[in-house]
């Protein structure tokens, strides 16, 4: 079996570190977008419920 040269081990670990930081950033970006959409939907639902109550009363 051939062993990889150990000269690139530092580059590999730094690359993996930056890749993980990028993936975490992408996750939080989409998670925050999802939360924003969810908040907007909940606000719209509350507005519709209040309008329905106004129509009924």
TrEMBL record:
It comes from the Bacteria. Keywords: Membrane, Transmembrane, Transmembrane helix. The chain crosses the membrane at residues 12-31. This is Uncharacterized protein. It comes from Jeotgalicoccus coquinae.
């Amino acid at each position: 079996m051939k062993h990889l040269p150990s000269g690139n081990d530092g580059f590999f670990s730094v690359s993996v570190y930056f890749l993980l930081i990028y993936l975490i950033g992408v996750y939080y970006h989409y998670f925050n977008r999802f939360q924003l959409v969810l908040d907007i939907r909940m606000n719209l639902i509350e507005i519709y419920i209040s309008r329905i109550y106004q129509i009924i009363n």
